[in-house]
Structure formats: C-alpha cells, structure tokens
Amino acid sequence: MASIAFPNISRSIRLPNGTTYNYVFVEPNGDKPFLLFLHGYPSSSYDWRHQIPFFSDLGYGLIIPDLLGYGGTDKPQNLEAYRVKKMSEEIIALLDFHKIPKVLAIGHDWGSWLLSRLANYFPERFSAFVWLDVGYLPPAGHFSLDAVNEATAKLVGHPIAGYWYFHSAPDAADLLTNYPDVTESLYWPEDPLLWKDHLCAIGGMRKWFDEKRVGKKAPWISDEEFALHRKIFSASNGGYAGGLNWYNVHIANLDTPDDDKISKERYYVEQPTLLVTCSLDMVGVPSLQMADMGQYVKNLQVENLECSHWLMLEKRDETNQMLKDFFENVGK
C-alpha cells in the first residue's frame, strides 16, 4: 500500500471513470525513462520495496500502483469492475495524467496477466517488457479451471491451480484475513516445494485451512515486513476480498468477450522482452511460461533464478541486476 509503505512518494488520483488509485510516483533524472511495476496476488506496491530505492537511485522514474482491489486503491465488489480491459484502460489513464508517453513495464504474477493485455491493447505505450515468473499470456478463449488442472497435471506432473477452487469459495476471504499466520506460512513458506501438495493440489489449500496449519515462513521476509503486510491486508482495509476478485472474474469468463475482439496480429509482442523464470515455483513452472512466449514474442531474452515465486523479494539483488542490465541494453 503506497500511502502506508511509502508515504513520502505516494500519490492518489481519481481517474476519469471515477476509480481511485493509490500509487508510488518518482520523477526520473535527466532522460531516464519511467518504469511501470505491476504486482500480483496477494500484494500491493509494497512488493517492490527492494526495487524502489535501487532504481530511483539510478535515476529511473517510477510509477507503481496498488492495483484494483489492493492497498489504497478502490476495492469494488462488482466483478465487472475487474475486467482486464477496464483495468488496462485505468493504467493508461494513470500514465496519461502524468503525460508519460512510453514506459518500460514489469509484471509479476497477476500483474503479468494485466501486462499481457496492456501489450495487446496499447503496444505503442511500451518500449520494453519484463515478465517475472509468469510469462506473457495471449488471449486464450473460454477458460476452464478443470481443464487447466487436467492439462498441467499431464504436462508437469501436477495440477498448478488447485488453490483456485479455494480462492473462489465464499469463505476464502474471511479465512485468509482472520488467520494471518496460516495464510502467510502457506503463501510465503520456508520450503517453496510445499506448494505442490498444499497449494497446487486440488483440495490442498482447503485442508491446510481446515487444519489451521502454521508452517515455517520464508526467512527472507522479516517480522516487520509481515506486520506491514498484515496492516495492508487487515479487515479494516478490505482484507483479501479485492484480490480474490481477479480469480473470480477469470473463472466467470468475464474477460472472454473482450479478448475475443483482439485481432490475431496484436497477439504478437514486438518490443524487447525479458522473461525471468523461477525454478522452484510449483505454480509458475518455467516450461509452461515458455509455451506462449516462444510463439508470440519476437525479441525474447530468458533468464532463470533458483528460487520461489517471489523472486523480487527472495533474490532481490539478482533480480535488480537482471533488470538493470536489460534496461541498459534496451537503451543502447
């Protein structure tokens, strides 16, 4: 949450469509470009806490929103508000407000999905792309959660989205909000391979919460950082409900009519692109990220880190250096 985590560089704006966004904003030095960072679930602009000082010290401009449903940004209950075309237009409206014609964009997790549609709808606004852990996802027509889990079980030996059934359950938001130790030790475990049985497996997350299990948490997040995360996701600030709407929109196929209107030519990404995969992520399995990127991304660089899903936190220095090197090469 920008206003809590970064009060000195946070801003708030009411967009022309009436939606309020909270975001980090740093002016660039000289002719340095702006970097647009898009977080995933369950996160906020606070996920980029190790990138903000690094890249601002290098002179880059930064624009890092709490995405819809998160942090200090609006958290509408209406699922239609979370349609990706609408959210893409909101990100562009934010850039327009600051008169930023082009950015270098970085997405992680659900932010990678949003960035994929931004690349389809507004390619002229981006000079380069970075997809972290979750790669570029072109429009894919009707979505079936059952089909995804069946297909990935065959491809990589386990379903990757069993937890989506829990995330779409009516009691999920309350459980995630009211049992923070249970939640945090599952989302940020000491052993990332734990996700295979307790997040990816169908029924695994439900069992975790039925038993109120509390495991060891990742050592690369401090107690103070977990405390701030709890504040951002407190019941008084909406808890996890807003973030879960991103899953529910997808399961309900509310984006399919818009996706079906995207021309096949716009599936292709022309700009320089970096994909950084995470070899220990049981959800964002590296081989799955390459399936679409190899077909649709024409100027692709691929790197890998031996880490969990949360590379910008766990491998902050390595991630920062990869991004820095990529941006410098793009600028040559």
What do you see in this structure?
- With 332 residues, this protein is an alpha/beta fold.
- 41% of the residues lie in helices and 14% in strands.
- It is built from 16 helices and eight strands.
- Strands 1-2-4-3-5-6-7-8 form an eight-stranded mixed β-sheet, with helices on both faces.
- The model has no long low-confidence stretch (mean pLDDT 96).
**SSE ordering:** HEEEHEHEHEHHHHHHHHHEHEHH
Tell me the major beta sheet: 8 strands, mixed
How are the strands of the largest sheet arranged?
1-2-4-3-5-6-7-8
User: What is the count of β-strands?
Assistant: 8
> Mean pLDDT, nearest integer?
96
**What share of residues is helical?**
40-55%
Rg is 18 Å
Shape: globular
Beta-strand proportion: 5-15%
Spans with pLDDT under 50 lasting ≥5 residues? none
**Terminal Cα separation, in Å?**
34 Å
Number of helices: 16
Supply the helix-strand structural class: alpha/beta
In short:
41% of the residues lie in helices and 14% in strands.
Please name the defining characteristics of this protein:
332 residues, alpha/beta, 8-stranded mixed sheet, 8 strands, 41% helix, 14% strand, globular
Helix/strand layout:
Layout (H helix, E strand, L loop, with lengths): L1 H4 L4 E5 L5 E7 L7 E5 L12 H7 L3 E5 L18 H14 L5 E6 L1 H12 L4 E7 L12 H12 L6 H5 L4 H7 L1 H8 L7 H6 L3 H7 L12 H10 L8 H11 L4 H4 L13 E6 L7 H11 L3 E6 L5 H4 L1 H15 L2
Parallel strand pairs: 3-4, 3-5, 5-6, 6-7, 7-8
Antiparallel strand pairs: 1-2, 2-4
Helix pairs in contact: 3-4
